[in-house]
Specification:
11 helices; two-stranded antiparallel ribbon; 36% helix; 3 domains; single chain; 12 strands
Length: 418
């Protein structure tokens, strides 16, 4: 016992000794730390104020039964969401302006599936025009926010929720399986189409009447944010030691590493070792194709709401709903966050889980991801990947509860504003 007490005493004495040595130096660094914290707090405040003032609307798109276009049409439509303008310096650091972001949403209400676009009102006419340019037969309506119909978190609310957020299983430069890999870029006949959205549609159409499942694909024009070391910078020039490169620069470097395996050696053994495998060749072709695309910062989130309690089978269904877009040789998705804890001792009486659910519900309702109050790290995805995850399914998807309009429109409205 005396030995243990002496050991503890020595530990604290040594700890305090090293802390006392470091304390005098903190005086010099403390002003910089406080200044940085104050600056970040100021930016968060003005940005949140700007975001709260920005008017957003929800557009519902009703698709006809006869729609037959491939996801390539949706990929062209995705270009309208590539808005990278953040304003002048005065706008950014006085008004708090930020890059515009958009939310592509799928919602199932008791098995009835709907497609939505949550956008800043400023872009309404532009987005509608682009939708009609690719899908002239659809109908677009400005509707009320469906999330307002669920009063989770209010006193005596009958609703219970569970939420998910996803991230890439590998680095962002590795692409997921896209509609190219499913042969949809050739626009085959309906009976030969294999649409990767079919499992998700069938799952959303199978939930009970007192349940709802919502999906968000939040997108924002991408920018350079991958840190690299500047080898030419002098040691004393701290601010030049780190540069930022774009997703395409990082992808190009990875592509060059893969292509080097095609360099032939002097003997048979080195030739076999350096030759790319079929999987590596497919990956190189996919990366090279994606280099020609626009890239977005992306966040993926889902919420399951129920009046009769959370059913485990639905939780499993939502958690596995986007696995078909992944491949071991390329990239895929894994759950980044949920509204629960694995072990009972991590959350006494579910207090922390309730807080997570309230936050997830708040973030979904406010479409918050890139900026306060959420400020999460996004994935980088191309228009091709986004169009694979979110597009209007054709006749190959036969889910009976998929909301479709009975007749096909011949052309978009002639009085569409621009």
């Amino acid at each position: 016992m005396v030995f243990i007490l002496n050991l503890i005493g020595n530990f604290f004495s040594q700890t305090w000794y090293w802390i006392s040595l470091a304390l005098p130096f903190t005086v010099y660094f403390l002003p910089f730390v406080l200044a940085y914290a104050l600056w970040e707090s100021y930016l968060a405040f003005i940005r949140e104020r700007y975001i709260n003032k920005e008017e957003r609307i929800l557009l519902e798109v009703k698709i006809p039964k006869e729609i037959s276009k491939s996801p390539a049409a949706m990929e062209l439509l995705m270009h309208v969401f590539y808005q990278t303008y953040e304003g002048e310096l005065v706008d950014q650091y006085i008004k708090g302006t930020v890059r515009s972001w958009f939310s592509l949403e799928l919602a199932s209400f008791g098995g009835e599936i709907h497609f939505y676009f949550n956008i800043p009102k400023f872009f309404k006419d532009l987005v509608e025009a682009q939708i009609y340019s690719q899908y002239s037969e659809v109908e677009i309506f400005e509707v009320d926010d469906y999330t307002q119909q669920v009063n989770f978190g209010q006193p005596d609310s009958p609703w219970e929720i569970f939420g998910w957020e996803w991230k890439f299983a590998k680095a962002d430069i590795y692409p997921i399986k896209t509609y190219y890999d499913f042969g949809l870029e050739k626009d085959p006949k309906e009976e030969y189409k294999v649409d990767p959205m079919t499992p998700l549609m069938e799952f959303l159409g199978s939930i009970r009447q007192d349940e709802q499942v919502w999906f968000q694909f939040l997108v924002m024009g991408g920018k350079d944010r991958f840190p690299i070391k500047n080898k030419k910078a002098k040691w004393y020039n701290f601010f030049s030691k780190v540069e930022m490169k774009g997703w395409k620069d990082a992808s190009q470097e990875e592509l060059q590493k893969i292509l080097k395996r095609e360099e032939k050696g002097d003997d048979i053994a080195s030739f076999v070792k350096l030759t790319m495998s079929p999987g590596e060749r497919l990956l190189a072709e996919s990366i090279e194709r994606h280099l020609a695309k626009l890239c977005f910062d992306v966040g993926i989130r889902a919420v399951y709401a129920s009046k009769e309690g959370i059913r485990p089978i639905v939780k499993v269904g939502v958690g596995n709903s986007i696995k078909q877009f992944g491949s071991p040789g390329m990239n895929g998705f894994k759950v980044a966050a949920t509204t629960s804890y694995n072990q009972p001792w991590e959350d006494y009486k579910g207090i922390r889980a309730r807080r997570l659910k309230k936050l997830m519900f708040k973030y979904f309702r406010e479409r918050a991801y890139f900026y306060p109050p959420a400020s999460k790290k996004p994935m980088v995805m191309t228009t091709e990947e986004l169009a694979t995850l979110y597009h209007f399914p054709g006749q190959a998807v036969t889910t009976p509860s998929l909301s479709r309009i009975p007749s096909k429109r011949g052309e978009p409205p002639v009085n569409l504003p621009l």
